[in-house]
Design a protein that fits this description.
Elements (H helix, E strand, L loop, with lengths): L22 E4 L5 E4 L2 E3 L4 H11 L6 E2 H9 L7 H15 L5 E4 L2 E4 L7 H17 L3 H13 L12 H27 L3 H14 L4 H13 L3 H18 L6 H11 L35 H12 L7 E6 L6 H11 L8 E5 L10 H11 L11 H12 L5 E7 L2 H4 L10 E6 L10 E4 L5 H12 L1 H6 L1 H10 L4 H12 L6 H9 L16 H9 L3 H10 L7 E2 H8 L3 H13 L4 E4 L2 E3 L2 H14 L14 H23 L22 H10 L1 H11 L5 H10 L2 H4 L4 H18 L2 H18 L2 H17 L3 H17 L3 H17 L3 H17 L3 H18 L5 H14 L3 H18 L2 H17 L3 H14 L4 H18 L3 H18 L3 H10 L6
Helix pairs in contact: 1-3, 4-5, 5-6, 6-7, 6-8, 7-8, 7-41, 8-9, 8-10, 9-10, 9-43, 11-12, 13-14, 16-18, 16-19, 18-20, 19-21, 22-24, 22-25, 23-24, 23-26, 26-27, 26-28, 26-29, 28-29, 28-31, 29-31, 29-32, 31-32, 32-33, 32-34, 33-34, 34-35, 34-36, 35-36, 36-37, 36-38, 37-38, 38-39, 38-40, ...
Amino acid sequence: MDRDSGPRVPKQRAPIQSDAADLRFSVLGPVRAWRDGESLPSGSPQQRALLAALLLRDGRTATAGELIDAIWGEEPPSQALAAVRTYASRLRKALAADALVSESGGYALRVRRDALDLAVAQELSGEADKARAAGDRCQARTLINKALGLWDGEPLANVPGPYAETQRARLEEWHLTLLETRLDLDLEVGCHAEAVSELTALTAAHPLRERLRELLMLALYRSGRQAEALAVYADTRRLLAEELGVDPRPELSRLQQRILQADAELARPSEEPEPARTVTRPAQLPATVPDFTGRVAFVRELGAQLATAEGSVMAVSALAGIGGVGKTTLAVHVAHQARGHFPDGQLYVDLQGAGNRAAEPETVLGAFLRALGTADSAIPDTLDERAALYRSALDGRRVLVLLDNARDAAQIRPLLPGTAGCAALITSRVRMVDLAGAHLVDLDVMSPEEALRLFTRIVGVERVGAERKAALDVVAACGFLPLAIRIAASRLAARRTWTVSVLAAKLADERRRLDELQAGDLAVKATFELGYGQLEPSQARAFRLLGLADGPDISLAAAAAMLDLPLHESEDLLEALVDTSLLESAAPGRYRYHDLVRLYARACAERDERPAAGVPHAEGQGREAALSRLLDFYLATAARVFSIERPGDRLVDHLEPTGAAGLAFTDRKAAQDWLYAEANCLLACARQASAGPSLRRAVDLLWAAQNLAESGANSKVYESVARGALEAARAFGDARTEGRARTSMTNVHLVAGRYAEADEEAAQAAVLAQAANDPAPVYWADNDRGIIAFNQGRHSEAEEHLRRATRGSRADGNLPGEASALCNLSRIHVVMGRAEEGIALAREGVDIYDRMGHTLRLPNARFALGIALTAAGRHAEALEQLADALDGFEANRQRLWEGTTHWRIAQAHLSARRPARAAQHAEQALAIGCIGGDRTRGNALITLGRALDALGQAGRARACWQEALSLHEQSGAAEADEVRELLGTPLSAA
């Protein structure tokens, strides 16, 4: 077979007739024909065999004898020639009149080449080869996937005859070759984790195909699963010896040796061809200011330092100085001048080191890797792995990295390039004496002459020249800080009726300058005071109050709630603040402060937000009132999201009342989108409110937004905020609030698989809630404790808790709570050998959720029903329920539940003796992650090992069980005994 084009077909020699242009044909599956998208009759199997033989001749004439041989082989019927003519006549009537022509005693199909799916697949394969040769692996991968997408099952399905049989074998072999090419490209672009599942299934289906085994070994090794990769080799060697009496091919043996030696080159894709290096060339530098002034010596010094990167060392320069001294402006200006030395690109990031939310190095590395052309799926999780991949991506390139506003050297180190030819330029408020090898530059304020030149360039020569002394007074009052000078000059330039003397007089008033003008990070407050003083009263109030919120940014709706103003008025105020540069527009409808401006806004609020004598905060003018309104907004809106996702759940009826209605949503997706888009701001609000008199509402906000604990993406932040809220509640001495805080922590521990901690929290939550006459946390605690006892093997105790939870939910009129308890009871009955009772209970839960349109937890009920059906041996029904559950979890963006469901689907397939499918789903569970943390991961590894053992891959099965044993021993899980038994029992292949 030709490697480039798949099965050989003769070259088309006859012209294409336009009358047949609307015909389309397929052979990569059942043999079918269409005209204008409508299916055409293809007749009997022998008639389809005739059509296939003509299609695969690519327009060339086939004699009657050749067609008879193709359809019947060496034993044709006596009337074979007449039958061929009949089939041809019927095809001519079904197709266009000029599509099937009689010629020289034979027949030919005259249609466009791209009318046949095989020809299209061959064309796509050829284009993919060209793209790969040119270094565009992503495009090659896309084209191969398009070609593979044309297959629709077995090629020439149900077509009889020796010719069809031969062509079918060729097409199937080509399909496998295309799959191997696509999987090879997957590994080259870093999609090794995703490839493991597919390769596991393919090696099970084609156990003697060594190339697939080789790709599986490499994918496992790059996924950090070295023991499994070596086990694949051992299984392959044993299988080849038993089945064929041969050793693995040299390529497979060499790969095993490289894995044994932990060859670093294996851990990354093979080298890109040189043209691909230029495909992704980041150019992230911010624009330089057109009126850059002064700093001549610094520009020369830094430019010379960056130029040394062309030699044998990696240049690192670090600028340090107080806020507002012009570090970023100077660094950007120098970086633009040095671009010629770095033809492979420039990276930039604001590390936000001046505030309390400094950028995490792993987050920055993820953004840098994407900018350098790395696919999301190829970006590893840990900081060390990302840093290593980042240095590898920069190897051989000449790239400038500008790291702006750094917190300290520890934040910087993982972000530094590792090779000659690259350079890093760093700005920070601290002097990085502990950054080895860095060229340190201390940036001071401007000289009076430089400061006056900058002021003049912005305001204009004529205005400054007429009042030179007043201009010197202005820059002196600004402390010669570039940022202060720039803002003051811009204000003056925008106000043509002001003179320089008016501005100087304003700055001379010490009451308008803050003492922090000479103190470190607060040095630019005098400049901000100047801008703030020019605001209208309503703008100034908005500036002060919005700065109080702790979130990374704020939406327009949340800002309107804080300000207690209509949406359109709030938008006008915020856009006015953007125009004055006191606020930034992060995205349409979202706003944020620079960290220094936020500090200044809060200082203004502390100073200016004081109610008049005898006027309480309830009138809405104080800081506490603004933050209270923001908390009300988030709580009310989160409660609406909860109600939409869990119709009938009475939790919302037990929440603290709010003074705001919250946002209304047109559909469930919009509600979900809001919750996840606002997750960081919502959790920041809950954290901030936990430290004050609004603790009760803060705890209820966490309860209403509990989906964030199960999302995976927000789980860690949610846990941190919930812990802080619990500590505050304990200190506050409010039993009701502490009980609810412990309810949230129970959920956190359950998601992470920390059952002992979860049980302790749930027990205390129930005691506190009973003492406070707070019913909902009581039956929630019983439900949770039932789940915990079940997972710890205390089945009778679990049943008791869950029956109490059922009664408590019914007493409170909480049907979804009742359904949850019933589904969990189902699990107890299943594990105690009462599968049919478990099925009935789970169906009750499904029916309740279904009647209420409860789409969030309906997948959980189907999940429980699928488990019960699996235990009863009703595998087809079980898989149907679990597939529906998986679709629901995907729609709900409950990623960890997706992974858990894949594991349960794997168990169902394994019970039905379909180990290949079981292994595929177990792999997906491991790749996604599961509810229950390491314990569930260990159980998924047990299932994967059983599936692999059934497939004859004994060595890899043992590697899975050994990893599972390590996880279960660390957590003290009871499943450790099961794994020890598996490891001590002779494997099926032994």
